[in-house]
């Protein structure tokens, strides 16, 4: 019996060693985050965040500095907790580089009850204040397309205003479709924004959830019914930076990569 127990124990140890040696079975480590495979590099993918520095990023407002409230933690670009209002954490953070046609992929995790977003094709209005975008805005905030990132289950913006303000929507303009699958707050989701010619798509966890075209009647009608109606030139395609919104809640970003199309 003793020999049988010993043999069983050795077999279990060997099984564990084999299991951990199988690719994909071990837990993801930070060493695998913010990296590109040889195939991705060959296909033209580029990292927007190296996991260690703010290289390639700067604040939207010239008076802000990334170090005010953004930090790099466990391979993530993390916005600090503010008051739950825009610009009360680290301020909006955007790429140095401009893009026109692109496939942008990123992973994100938000706190319970949190709110944030990805801005693109937005107007820098610091020198030309215009229509107010939110309560407390002075008209200098960015105005543009937003891929909404939010805790759908808890945030009042979603609970009160519905799908047009939910994760993955073209914020306040086009709601995500019924195929959307969102992981709970605190877990990482994978999102994707594709812009090719006049066509734009939002993806979430491997599924396309929003699709629209520049100049389409659908988009024109949506803008006309929204708070963006009074913004001159809203929805015009032009070279754009990618911006991470500070809405005063903790959010983490990693594996941000882009391919020019």
Descriptive overview:
- This protein is α+β, with helices and mostly antiparallel strands and 261 residues long.
- The chain has a single domain, classed as Exo-inulinase, domain 1 (Jelly Rolls).
- It is 15% helix and 29% strand.
- The protein has four helices and 13 strands.
- The protein has helices at residues 2-21, 38-42, 156-161, 217-224, and strands spanning 45-47, 57-59, 70-73, 76-79, 93-95, 102-110, 115-123, 143-150, 189-196, 199-204, 207-213, 243-244, 251-260.
- The strands form two sheets. Strands 1, 3, 4, 6, 9, 10, 11 and 13 form an eight-stranded antiparallel beta sheet that branches. A five-stranded antiparallel beta sheet has the order 2-5-12-7-8, with no helix packed on it.
- The radius of gyration is 21 Å and the shape is globular.
- The N and C termini lie far apart (66 Å).
Q: Uncertain runs with pLDDT below 50, 5 residues or more?
A: 7-30
Please tell me the CATH architecture by its name: Sandwich
Number of domains: 1
End-to-end gap:
66 Å
Question: What are the salient characteristics of this protein?
Answer:
single chain, 261 residues, alpha+beta, 8-stranded antiparallel beta sheet, 5-stranded antiparallel beta sheet, 4 helices
SSE blueprint and pairings:
Elements: H1 2-21, H2 38-42, E1 45-47, E2 57-59, E3 70-73, E4 76-79, E5 93-95, E6 102-110, E7 115-123, E8 143-150, H3 156-161, E9 189-196, E10 199-204, E11 207-213, H4 217-224, E12 243-244, E13 251-260
Antiparallel strand pairs: 1-13, 2-5, 3-4, 4-13, 5-12, 6-9, 6-13, 7-8, 7-12, 9-10, 10-11
